[in-house]
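Throughout our pipeline, every protein is held as a single compact record rather than as scattered files. The record that follows is passed on verbatim for readers who wish to inspect the format.
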Amino acid sequence: MRNIMQLRSLRAVVALLLVLVLSGPVSASGHRKETHKESPKELARQIDALLEQPTASRAAWGIAVEDLATGAVVYSHDAERLFTPASNAKLFTTATAWARLGAAYQFHTTLESATAPDQYGRLAGDLVLVGRGDPNLSGRALPYEGKTQRPFPPDQALAALADQLAARGVKVIDGDLVADDSFYSNERYGQGWAQNDLVWEYGAAVSALAINDNAVFVNIKPGAKEGDRAFVSLAPAAEYFDIDNRITTSATGERKLGLQRELGSRHVELWGAIPLTDAGTSLAVALEDPAEYCARLLHELLLRRGIEMHGKVRVHHSATPPESAPLAAPARVVLAEHVSAPLGQDLMVINKVSQNLHAEMLLRLLGREKGTGGSIAGGLQVVKEFLSEAGISPDEFAFYDGSGLSRQNLVTPHATVKLLRYSAQQPWGADFAATLPVAGTDGTLAGRLKSLPAGAVVQAKTGTLDHVNAISGYLTTVRGERYAFAIFCNNNTLENHGASQVIDAILAAVANAKN
């Protein structure tokens, strides 16, 4: 009860400060002075008041706001301390990608064999599906337009490869079907990831062969009548998971579902109830071995096209190589190829919707193309070198992954603002800023900051873990000044929306302030 009362008190304070910020001070005559904007001193007073509330004050706050044009500090609070940034870490990964790889980079996924098919359409050896890190082998529509949409079949890219193979005249494959994801080292998870995250899509295993974001949609609909088992289907459909369905259909009531998959297991237990009138739902369950799933799915697609398969389905993973040893590929005949959309379109997806798997694949891509190998360490070294160019010293950050899912990541608000300022000065700066969610409009900010004063704009990356809330990006004030900012809240015991309310009130105050 005490926490509830404190939360209500904080909400009331936030609401009052928002009214004061957005409407301006009252004159002695009682009329609102609409043209007056708060001074930096008044801005500091407002933000300090928010941070001093009992519930907010128990958390750790780090804030940095700087004028992009002059470099002047607009507001600072523990800006040199290290904080867990959550998904704000994606800013560092994607900015490095803009600088080192460019928006035009494309991925090539191929079907290869040691020899071409003979005159009868027979392949004497193995058929190899070679993944090179394309994160969008899925039904996602690109380019991103306001939200992530999946209007196409999730296996469309593999189906297109199967069509090409059939059109090439292949009728029989004597060898095995091999899924090769050795383009990246076999590091499926990042250091410091929570165990319960790994069951779901947002904590999916990383692989150079990623199908449908390395997750399977478990679609659940009510049965025909009360008491029937719910109808469960998988998409993409492939022989992989063992489903134990204990969900029953109820006449009325609310949908109450449970799902469990132990790590390392393909046994998925489902339980609960779903009412007859329910339209159904979908749960995105992470794959243990994405490359194997790709191989099994492709095997089914080839059989449907009348191609005989005499061998077995298997995978080829890379043992983590010494960082000095580049990955080598044998000379093979390319029988089919899928070319991705330009990388810039996926950078938009990563930042707009905070796509963890794509950020992790991007980190490994940086290591593969610009570093010592397609590994976490190889990618982080490229990021570190880029940050040094941006004037950020190694003691201002410690990253263990590319997505921010790791609890061990640390960075200062000041370093984050330096990254944003440096990026804004680059030829790709405007394109980088365009990948960030726009407050009240799209991505992870679609439902937030809708009460910003007229003329103010926020483009920013959000970040959320248990007890962590963060946001960093660019803010245009009502007076037209453009700021770079970073706000980190750690050790927060409020519900996530409680910390978000404080953060949003801070940004509203900054948007209305006079520099």
Residues 1-10, 18-38, 321-327 have pLDDT under 50 and may be disordered.
